[in-house]
Amino acid sequence: MFDITTRDYSILEKYILAGRIKADSSYFFTLDGRYIVYFRFSGKRFTYSVLNYATEKSVVLAISRTVLSEADYPGLVKKLLHCKVYQFVLPPQPQILIEAIFRQLLPEYGYVVRDKQIELSVMMFESMRHKKVALCEAEVGTGKTLAYLVAAIVYGLYEGKERRASPYVFASPMNPTPIIITTSSIDLQQSIIRKFIPDLSRILMEYKIITSPVTAVLRKGKEHYLCEERYADFMGYLANSDISMDVRLYQKLKAKTLEQCDIDLDAYPDIKQHVVRKINVPRDCDRKCPYYKRCRYIDHISRARSDGYTFQVTNHNYYLANVQREYSGLAPLIPKCGVHIIDEAHKLLDAAYQILGETFSSSLTGEFIRILHNHTTGNKAYHKKAYLLTDDLAFHNQRLFMELEKTLPTDETEENRRKNVKFNAAVKQAMRDLQTSLDEIYRTCFQDICCRQLGHLHREISGGIETFLAPKDIIYWLEKGGDGLWQLAAIPTNMEALLYEVLWKGMASKILTSATLTDDTGYGFFKEQTGIGKLSSWLLAEIRTPSPFDY
Length: 551
What we know:
- This protein has 551 residues and is α/β, with parallel strands linked by helices.
- 45% of the residues lie in helices and 15% in strands.
- It folds into four domains: 4-81, no CATH class; 94-215 and 506-545, 3-Layer(aba) Sandwich (Rossmann fold); 220-307, no CATH class; 363-413 and 420-468.
- Strand 4 (46-52) and strand 5 (57-64) form a beta hairpin.
- The model has no long low-confidence stretch (mean pLDDT 89).
């Protein structure tokens, strides 16, 4: 691809004899066996033209006062690639295109040629093509992000070509199958969407390798977005509060006009997390919501779920929640994708613990009590009874986590994030008392708990108690949540087998990459921990690329 030869004089002569090109034309070079560059001298200037002898159309490329030499080939080729007679044709071998992008196109824009990066990209492409799970350890400086983006775009071009050539083309979707990219950090996701993809798309568009821009959409959990129902509810609570802190918060939120501006709460870093948790989209968001038909979050999700995007960029938690839903036969969060690229794969297991495991946070009852107080209706006697019951609930919740703290080993280091706990008789009794208190509130305040938010929290608290009261086939511990409060956490004892069933057993290709996937023995430990080791060897591919930097 982009190969220059200088031996096609006879082809030029054929066109001269046919009268298609003037007789005083001289041969210069041929590009890709398809485009002949020739020139004429008028006595004052040299005119360089190109002929596409597949279409037999020609156009002037450049006019020069002096004759051009071999050193001028690159400049003329660049003009040729941007002229109207140039038509990009996929080379028969995809590896040729990948090599050309890295060795010929990207250096024009300041990128350094790295042999290991090209080797990595080709291996990733082959794994995509053959539906393999690829383990790709790429040390710092290899350029793994660009490697998998180029591999994925080239894969999409050839996959689209094969689909168009299929006899079942009318039954095939018009848009290419989207590709998932999942990472651990929001910074990398933003960099992929705002820098890597736009830059690569622009370069490939300029060289006519693609005819429309590469597109990407950032996917993340609903908790990152504004819920207009909860926001209205919370603002109503603040507006009726006499507490000075609430008054200031009300004025601050009102000044932001969230009901009209961006619903992505990450766009407002000055809004504290405890406030975000009161106004973000809840887990039980559904069609029953009175705001549903005019909800901006639902509109955003509908657009993001379309197959019009080349890449669906997300985080490990959202990605795992999606594959878990697909495995359970539920509607997926992300459109069906044939290739899953898992960057920062060394953090995938931590995300699996969160998504495939269970948590029970001490903050749940506090949220339940706050919303119940805000929705309580009825006379003074009912209000008094409801407040007494919620005080009792708060007491039993506090007692449960105090009893759990008592079981912590005295030699546990402060740095250890996960604290081993025991479910002794006192802990189990505290859990039963918490459930009894919750049941009493449900019987007394049934009408208020019919509120969607309260109903969901009630089910979540009851479900958590049920899970941990009889902890079978789980490994559990105590840890601090994102809000700094204690929470119980658990994972299945058969996590490796579960990951194999949910994640690796499917038909989609999985490309796992990170700077740290191996130990001294190779990929063995990582494969065992993640369940990848259960795959047949012919479904696996492995590569390790060292850093180009000398540390």
